[in-house]
Write a structure and sequence with these properties.
2 copies of one chain form a homodimer. The first copy, chain A, is α/β, with parallel strands linked by helices. Helix content of chain A is 27%, strand content 26%. Chain A has 2 domains: 5-56, Spermidine Synthase, Chain: A, domain 2 (Roll); 60-273, Vaccinia Virus protein VP39 (Rossmann fold, 3-Layer(aba) Sandwich). Chain A has helices spanning 60-73, 90-95, 111-120, 140-146, 171-181, 198-211, 257-262, 267-273; strands at residues 15-19, 23-29, 34-40, 44-49, 52-56, 80-85, 103-107, 133-135, 153-157, 186-193, 214-221, 229-236. In chain A, α4 (140-146) crosses α5 (171-181) and α5 (171-181) packs across α6. Chain A is globular and about 50 Å long. β1 (15-19) of chain A pairs antiparallel with β1 (15-19) of chain B, so a sheet runs across the interface.
Chain lengths: 281, 281
């Protein structure tokens, strides 16, 4: 296992999470990252990219539901959705639960992610053959630059905000998203942990506010992401993501109307997040 | 470090949390447990009992505030509060921020906890000399049995629900608490993680419902407790813990009116927690 960096210290997580591994089902390398699919007695199969757990069979639904459903339920009838990253298909699976969605673009630069997901995580990749999916394997920034339509939502399901994923967190990228979304669309991106990465959470909010009229922050409890108290950052030019516009799609295991209403960070805490120089709440 | 069980596998947590340790400031043993005070570059000083991190200097406020303030803010004027366990003084510190509190009983069977806290965690143990505190170092169940007054709140800040702490999670103990609380008091106890200990969360709810008219569940994000998505279980005979009765005391770092309103588990998820046999949401 020495050359899979599963157990190496995460340079920006102060707790190292160590998992018992029963089997290594797959190891490989794409042009972009190292892959491992392993099994754990509790979590089942786990997808590990560059040594970081991306999701597990047992609890992937928290992240994938929360990435997709908050923005999409804030609209009456989302039709066009762009998922950047997320080649595994977990977010796409949730997006396509919305019956009004006509087109879901999947923009993951690394086609290996979808291949590995179909092979080892059939329940996560279950919607990867849906006819409404438009597979667009390319750089997310380049995709938005070349996109001449309008999207109802742009959802960024990338790896952590380091390395090549950083291009998805720049002012230029947010500007492209804003253009594609128009006045009524919503932008959602992962935004790391309120426990361990507060300066990064703040930086994403500040950058979003340069491109969008408003930025917001909601959270979800994710056991396998360092810091656990995980953030999703929102950019909007007018749409109110806080208000569900209709009943939840089914089935879900975590997302529900009450989660929608309670997942946003209270103003008292949001103001602390935004205090310059603050390292933790 | 071999004889401090810091890094041993937690038998009921599927992820092992590993911390870098700079210094071991103290190691000792009481009649009840093994103590270690260590320092970590991120968390600062950490109190470790029987190999389990109890709190860290950096983030202790989440747990201590949430253990004390939800119940106490649901009352106009709490006067008498019983804290069982919690010898470190963290919960007592929060309780005594409420100006109406006249007496706070601290019932930790292990007097070493307070001694170590005063010495190594002065900001946590800062209220241990408050004149309103009544130090009652004895078994929590025996204390409640012999208590002939009425309390507004009983807060159980014990170690995990294993070993000698189990006596604080029995129907008999809850029955004693109910008697002491009368119709208007509130009972709060830790209740482990919604991610990793769902059957235990359910067991506590079911046991509480035998003694109290209603049981409830609220959560907080705790980075150093296995599973992180931590629960507090509530027993009530009529008082409504969900409604803050007045403005928050100050200062707090996490608790606020909006946290109070959003920390309770949504009914959709609560119903899943209570499904017999369910191992995770």
């Amino acid at each position: 296992m020495a050359d899979i960096r599963l157990f190496e210290k995460d340079p920006y997580a102060p707790i190292r999470y160590v998992y018992e591994i029963d089997q290594v089902l797959y190891r490989g390398k794409s042009a972009f990252q190292e892959f491992a699919v392993v099994t754990n007695p509790y979590f089942g199969r786990m997808l590990v990219l560059d040594g970081v757990v991306q999701f597990t069979e047992r609890d992937e639904f928290y992240y994938h539901e929360m990435m997709a459903h908050v923005a999409l339920h804030a609209m009456e009838s989302p039709r066009t959705v762009v998922v950047i990253g997320g080649g595994d298909g977990g977010v796409i699976r949730e997006v396509l639960k919305h019956p009004t969605v006509e087109k879901a673009y999947l923009v993951d630069i690394d086609t290996e992610v979808s291949r590995v997901s179909r092979e080892f995580f059939p329940t996560v990749g279950s919607a990867l053959s849906d006819p409404r999916l438009v597979d667009s394997p390319m750089d997310g920034a380049a995709f938005l630059d070349g996109f001449d339509g309008t999207a109802d939502a742009v959802l960024v399901d990338s790896t952590d905000i380091v390395g090549h994923a950083r291009s998805l967190f720049t002012p230029e990228f947010y500007e492209s998203a804003r253009r594609v979304l128009g006045d009524r669309g919503l932008f959602v991106t992962l935004s790391e942990s309120l426990h361990f990465h507060l300066p990064m959470v703040r930086e994403v909010q500040k950058t979003l506010k340069k491109a969008f009229k408003t930025a917001d922050l909601y959270t979800a409890p994710l056991a396998t992401y360092a810091g656990n108290w995980w953030c999703f950052a929102v950019g909007s030019n007018g749409a109110d993501i806080r208000k569900p516009a209709r009943k939840p799609v089914t089935p879900t295991r975590y997302y529900c109307a009450e989660v929608h209403q309670t997942c946003f960070l209270p103003r008292f805490l949001y103001d602390r997040v935004m205090e310059e120089g603050r390292e933790s709440l």
